[in-house]
């Protein structure tokens, strides 16, 4: 039995919105508990506004929780993260433009992170960049390219390479393939799956797209209005969904079977 690398226990996040008489609260997460074991890819799926990104932001310390606890390898994660806490959990976003500085080449973007974390002597950085590009199956010729000169899929591979540069054990992918064409989505899904095997990575894979979650994840958590309504290994979830909301999500994806047939 593998150990949990990441756990959220009874996590709640409340936002204050509006001013004066219009002031109110949005409970973005309500007592959310989930875990990701070593080497596992766990899905978090739900409609837009269901609280997925809030969970991701709380996990990496960008969003304060109102209550509940987060753990990494059994240790409590405090709100104020150390550099080492930040190194071991990396995030990949929907739009690589938000994680890649448009002025920086691939090489510069990776050097910057390596230098911030001070984990490699300067003379070893270039070799490490080449190794990372090969890991994400990009040619070395892209080392000096800037984000605008690359395709969406290439940019997302660079964002993944950059995230991997610090040897994290845990990745959070928040809608990481949602902005890509279907064929490119499939190739990034395959890459994440390969990386899980070769690097023994654990991944929390966040998506509104059930078809993709079904292809990639070992287990799935379904979130609706800030609450996990169903949590199950992937196959039983699709074969025999227990919660009405899960059934509704599955039935509202007409292209699901077609996509699974095409990519399997
Ligand atoms: N900074 C914020 N201030 C106020 N409300 C927020 C903020 N961030 C998110 N929310 C609200 O919290 C809920 C969950 O949002 P989010 O986590 O972004 O959902 P998802 O990623 O599933 O689309 C939504 O109702 C959203 O409007
Ligand atoms: Mg989101």
The major sheet is characterized as: 6 strands, mixed
State which percent range the strand residues make up: 25-35%
Which term fits the overall shape?
globular
Indicate how many domains the architecture comprises. 1
Q: Terminal Cα separation, in Å?
A: 28 Å
* Known CATH architecture: 3-Layer(aba) Sandwich
Could you give the order of the helices and strands?
EEEHEEHEHHHEHEHEEHHH
Which ligands are bound? adenosine-5'-diphosphate, magnesium ion
Q: Roughly how much helix do the residues carry, as a percent range?
A: 25-40%
What is the CATH superfamily?
A: P-loop containing nucleotide triphosphate hydrolases
- CATH C-level label: Alpha Beta
What's the total number of strands?
10
Q: Tell me, rounded to a whole number, the average pLDDT.
A: 93
Derived from helix and strand composition plus strand pairing, the structural class reads alpha/beta
**Sheet with most strands: strand arrangement:** 6-7-8-3-9-10
CATH topology: Rossmann fold
Number of helices: 10
Summarize the structure.
This protein is 37% helix and 26% strand. With 264 residues, it is of the alpha/beta class. It has a 6-stranded mixed β-sheet with strand order 6-7-8-3-9-10, sandwiched between helices.
Topology overview:
Layout: E1 4-17, E2 24-37, E3 41-45, H1 52-59, E4 67-72, E5 75-76, H2 83-88, E6 89-92, H3 106-117, H4 125-135, H5 152-164, E7 170-174, H6 182-199, E8 202-207, H7 210-216, E9 219-224, E10 227-233, H8 234-239, H9 244-251, H10 256-263
Parallel strand pairs: 3-8, 3-9, 6-7, 7-8
Antiparallel strand pairs: 1-2, 1-4, 4-5, 9-10
The protein binds adenosine-5'-diphosphate and magnesium ion.
GO molecular function: ATP binding; ATP hydrolysis activity
Domain ABC transporter: 8-250
Pfam families: ABC_tran, oligo_HPY
